[in-house]
Specification:
193 residues, alpha/beta, Ribosomal Protein S5, domain 2, four-stranded mixed β-sheet, 30% strand
Length: 193
């Protein structure tokens, strides 16, 4: 008997900054595998430790975001297996700003939809399903522009440390407040029918 109803893999972009004295924005790719099992034994999230890895904080943020986003979508996670890996040897992903992108990507996979290739979100997910502020937005938006991502979805509420900044030419920056708004902005589909 087959153990999984469906299995999908995707490479998804995440926005971040380097850990140098004078940080720069960067776009990294994460390998995301989503499987829907035939049981209801609970959400399984596995973080590969090679070639690269996720910090404990990043792991916690991602696990919480998956539960929170699914709850906001009215979806059950009991039959989901999620496997995440960093395809860069020796690289560790820190922080929580990747959690919205990963959780919305998983919702899209579970619904048989996908995030459009030139779109990305940076943000975390609050317990009530809102997209929370993250730092270094100007650096992250600049990196997304250099990577030819045309739409960056950001938290509606800004980090106080981020001074005024300009949106790069031909780029759309879309502030959102909720998982539902983020899903619509990233997939062009409503989260709930």
């Amino acid at each position: 008997m087959e153990a999984f109803k469906g299995s999908q893999e995707q490479v998804i972009p995440i926005l971040g900054i380097t850990m140098e004295k004078k940080p720069i924005g960067t776009v990294a790719n994460i390998l995301l595998s989503f499987q829907e099992r035939n049981d209801d034994d609970g959400l399984i999230v596995q973080f590969r430790s090679a070639p690269g890895r996720f910090s404990k904080m990043a792991q916690t943020a991602v696990q919480q975001a998956i539960y929170r986003a699914a709850r906001a979508a009215g979806m059950k996670t009991d039959s989901w297996t999620v496997i995440l890996s960093v395809p860069y040897p020796g690289v560790t992903i820190y922080g929580d700003s990747l959690s919205a992108m990963i959780s919305v990507s998983i919702l899209a996979m579970a619904k048989g939809e996908s995030i459009l290739a030139d779109r990305v979100i940076t943000g975390a997910v609050s317990p009530d399903g809102h997209i929370t502020p993250v730092g270094s937005l100007p650096l992250k938006v600049a990196a997304a522009n250099e990577a030819h991502l045309r739409r960056v979805v950001i938290p509606e509420e800004m980090d106080i440390a981020d001074a005024d900044w300009r949106t790069p030419f031909l780029m759309q920056v879309s502030p959102v407040g909720s998982i539902s708004q983020a899903y619509q902005a990233l997939t062009d589909h409503p989260l709930r029918p």
